[in-house]
Amino acid sequence: MALVKIHDFYPNYRDEIFGGTDIKGMDIYAGTTDEKIGTVHDILLDDTGRFRYLVVDTGFWIFGKKVLLPIGSARIDYDAGRIYAIGLVDKNQAEQLPEYDELQPIDYDYEERVRGVYRDRTAGTTAGTTAAATPAVSAAATRNRDTYNYDQEPHLYDRNDTDHRNIKLYEERLIANKNRYKAGEVSVGKRVETEVARAAVPVEKERIVIERTSAGMSGAEPVAPGTANFQEGEIARAEVYEETADIHKEAFVRENVEIHKEVERDMVEGQETLRREELQVDTEGKPVVERRPRQ
Fold first, then answer.
1. If you average pLDDT over every residue of the chain, what do you get?
2. In a 3-state reduction of DSSP, which class is residue 170?
3. Is the dihedral of CA 81, 86, 88, 90 positive or negative?
4. Which of 29, 32, 79, 139 has the smallest C-beta neighbourhood within 10 Å, fewest atoms?
5. Of residues 164 and 153, which shows the higher confidence score?
6. Looking at the predicted structure, is the pLDDT value of residue 134 above 50?
7. Angle CA(16)–CA(22)–CA(110) in degrees, nearest 5?
8. Domains of the chain and any CATH numbers
9. For residue 125, what pLDDT is reported?
10. 26 to 38, 39, 79, 161: CA distances (angstroms)
């Protein structure tokens, strides 16, 4: 069965699998001696998405190689930020593991070499009793590369976090936000209207009026001798004026228009039914001590 890295199967594995926590980089300690073995470099899954191995970078603690830790042999302590390798006793056993090369495919023979180290650990804990050794011999007799599957060895591949498990309690909260959108538009412009206007102005014109009156023979007054001077070319001049109408148009400011916005405020209320998870612990006796963080 082909193995893939966790990021290739679950690109968002931190949130989907670990609730925002990344176990990559966590320190790994031997389960019995509390001796540091290395750190988590990666996680390998089978093609169904089930956890199979932790890739352990031994760094300078051992020989700087990477080895595999079956997921069933790991216990994750999220509070302490460390992982315990239950299937490893100390560094010496880790040194016996074959080196993991991410550029090389993992085949059945390689996994058998890995499993053999952890099986030796299991066999060692049960050595000395013939009855305890019998199941291991029987299991070895039934293993076959063509029929083997991880379920045959649950002590190596069952993911069991019952010793150190985080339970996240969720609650819903009512979030009130507001969105701004365009509700309308006002365009203010000008247009030209025309009308015919009439205006009247009085004008004056001067005219010369010549009135001639004949004295007649009976009413004529004689003039003194030498007074009458008969000559040609005597001229009387008078200037004549006329007024003309000057009607034209001029532009004036008729009205000032000021444009501004006013904000009207209103309160919008809404209600929803919110859910919250509460911890329920069913126990017999008093085996549980509940601790809450200090405020």
1. 79
2. coil
3. positive
4. 79
5. 153
6. no
7. 95
8. 3-157 (3.90.50.10)
9. 43
10. 9, 5, 11, 16
Spell out the alpha helix ranges (H) of 68-215.
Answer: 91-95, 108-126, 130-142, 154-157
Q: What type of residue is 67?
A: V
- The structure tokens 């893939």 sit at 4
Query: CA 219, CA 110: separation in Å to the nearest integer?
Result: 166
Q: How far apart are CA 94 and CA 63, in angstroms?
A: 10
Alpha carbon 40 to its chain centroid, in Å, reads: 30
Copy the structure tokens of residue 267. 């309160």
Arithmetic mean of pLDDT, 128-156:
64
Q: How far apart are alpha carbons 194 and 214 in whole angstroms?
A: 62
Phi, psi of 113 (to 5 degrees): -65, -40
Q: Sign of dihedral through CA atoms 84, 87, 90, 94?
A: negative
Mean pLDDT of 201-224: 79
Distances (CA, A) of 85 to 5, 52, 121, 211, 271: 20, 14, 12, 146, 50
User: Which residues are bridge partners to 74 per DSSP?
Assistant: 85
Q: What gap in Å lies between CA 263 and CA 2, rounded to an integer?
A: 64
CA distances from 90 to 23, 66, 193, 239 (A): 21, 15, 100, 139
Check the CA dihedral 115-96-78-43 and report its sign: negative
Distance in angstroms (rounded) separating the CA atoms of residues 30 and 94: 9
Instruction: Write the DSSP string, 1-32.
Output: --EEEHHHH-TTHHHHTTTT---TT-EEEETT
Residue 50 above 50 pLDDT? yes
